[in-house]
Amino acid sequence: MSTYVFGHINPDSDSIVGAISLSYLKNQLGEECIPTRQGDITAETEFILNKFGGKLPELKTSYAGEKVYLIDFSNTLEAPKDIADATILGIVDHHKLGDITTDTPLECWIRPIGCSNTIVKEMYDFHKVEIPKDIAGMMMLAILSDTVIFKSPTCTKVDTKAVKELAAICGVEDYKALAMEMFIAKSAVKGASARNLNTRDYKMFDMNGAKVGINQLEMIDISALDDRKEELFEDMKKLKEDDSLHTILVLLTDIIKEGSQLLVVSDDESKVEAALDTKLQNSQAWLPGVLSRKKQVIPFLQPQFK
Ligand code: MG
Ligand code: MG
Ligand code: MG
């Protein structure tokens, strides 16, 4: 039996870097841990690993009989299929509490702050373990990604402080410029299929029995997708069927204009309109100021299914 550390399906940078940073901390504390991932990495995560020489965690999708730490999720729909047959030693997360439960007591670090890696930074501080330069750099960029360079309403003082301290450790002075480079890498859409675009940051939620899928594309200029909306809608319809969803939302988030273009395919569009206080036109709406799925979308959508 081994111990693995991994993040959610369709892994983002927080999930991949978190597996690396939390495994290293655990190893320093004398607990042998292996960082893994549940899926392919994004262009953004590739940028982060290349920048700081990080090693890609191994792909592993089955964990029956193993010990595990979960990072950046606590939701069954984002977990490996056989998670119920694994022993969960701990959860480090910054989302709403999911439905994963355990048979044994566990270590839990769940806080309403901007990034799981900020929590991992606090764990290093708590245990007085030094963070190596390369891991500090990756953690810094994961936090800058999750907080959209501090613009997201999920961002807290704890996150900005962590970034500054990690920047000092990894020796990057202009961390905002580096984060901008990262978002440019993340914004590349040329040649990507509609399915790739629709699932880059795709999560499913069980909202009182109704399955809702939400994808978010964070870009420096969403007009790059202006002539691909039809194609995205066609694929959203297929994805809705594939995953038996009541509703699928795609948020095209413009991090410069600071808002999201919402695309909707739903059995009942009025629920989405009521939740987000908007009027859809051709199943679309511009949501000014909306940058965060977890804080500005899910909390309002969930009550519509009560
Ligand atoms: Mg995540
Ligand atoms: Mg996160
Ligand atoms: Mg994100």
Throw out a few tags for this protein.
11 helices, Diaminopimelate Epimerase, Chain A, domain 1, 11 strands, 306 residues, binds magnesium ion, inorganic pyrophosphatase (n-terminal core), five-stranded mixed β-sheet, alpha/beta
Can you characterise this structure?
The protein is an alpha/beta fold and 306 residues long. The chain has two domains: 3-184, inorganic pyrophosphatase (n-terminal core); 194-305, Roll (Diaminopimelate Epimerase, Chain A, domain 1). Helices cover 37% and strands 21% of the residues. It is built from eleven helices and eleven strands. It has a six-stranded parallel β-sheet. The longest helix is centred in the first third of the chain and has 16 residues, at 13-28. The structure holds magnesium ion (3 copies). One magnesium ion is lined by residues 12, 146, 201. Residues 8, 12, 14-15, 72 line the site of one magnesium ion (MG).
